[in-house]
């Protein structure tokens, strides 16, 4: 076999209260074609990808080389050809999509020595949390936690997202790395806030599993990360406070931000939300773009070509 192609969905993590636990995949894709080469090269086509390294220091090569090492194989020379429409470092799981894409393509090139579950465990170790990588691997909604021991499998449940559930992604014109957005979080939380989030996250999972969109506005409330990250994302507090009065079922910071997602159904609600977020972003003088995202229920797709 000459080449493998993987198509990986982008994702949103947390969905409000499910910090490091809940993820959802979107129809917004990174495509990676991978084959052996004489000399390693990473060719990239997509907004902002030209800022990434094209040699062995690229994240894609680093991850693929780790998979080869885990399989007991020497580090190879590889050619990656990458196309992506996923905005980088904006909270839509670009790094998770890259990690999943590199692992799945390298695994396919080696004729699949590792199962999907083993790849999930590797991806979680590399990303540090299971939310985005789980959604990129399995599609739909994924609920997962890190395993209690390094050797154990990652416990997760995946379920299908309703086709009619659209997300309006409000994507500010600035980067916010996950690393930076985690430094503003406290080390200790009040008992009341922990109880609040356990309740809301549990309610959210149950509401999503049963298609109870009417519960999202209250179930998506969070006290663990959004209140602290609001200082880094102008307009976030106002959008979260009032999106439900302007056409949204519920809203959240997407992953570590700065993107904000507003769940809605129907064109009338989309138009109402667009005017609402525009008023707030203009008031804060923040440039932004919007994307209308549909759920991806398939997860990563791999083919040999
Ligand atoms: N296709 C890619 N190829 C190589 N590296 C990538 C690719 N996509 C993302 N990355 C790396 O991942 C970094 C972004 O990771 P980060 O976790 O900060 O943001 P994100 O994954 O876009 O957002 P979030 O984790 O909040 O959803 C980029 O700066 C780049 O180093
Ligand atoms: N759960 C992660 C997602 C971003 O990688 C966070 O919010 O920091």
Automatic annotation (TrEMBL):
GO biological process: threonine biosynthetic process
Organism: Brevibacillus fulvus
Keyword vocabulary terms for this entry: Amino-acid biosynthesis, ATP-binding, Cytoplasm, Kinase, Nucleotide-binding, Threonine biosynthesis, Transferase
Residues covered by the GHMP kinase N-terminal domain: 58-140
EC number(s) from the headed UniProt entry: 2.7.1.39
Pfam families: GHMP_kinases_C, GHMP_kinases_N
Location, primary (coarse class): cytoplasm
Pathway: Amino-acid biosynthesis; L-threonine biosynthesis; L-threonine from L-aspartate: step 4/5
Residues holding ATP: 87-97
Keyword Cytoplasm: yes
Localization: Cytoplasm
Residue ranges of every copy of the GHMP kinase C-terminal domain listed in the record: 205-279
Annotated function: Catalyzes the ATP-dependent phosphorylation of L-homoserine to L-homoserine phosphate.
GO cellular component: cytoplasm
Catalytic reaction list: L-homoserine + ATP = O-phospho-L-homoserine + ADP + H(+)
UniProt similarity note: Belongs to the GHMP kinase family. Homoserine kinase subfamily.
Matches recorded under PANTHER family: HOMOSERINE KINASE, HOMOSERINE/4-DIPHOSPHOCYTIDYL-2-C-METHYL-D-ERYTHRITOL KINASE
One annotated GO molecular function: homoserine kinase activity
Protein name stated in the entry: Homoserine kinase
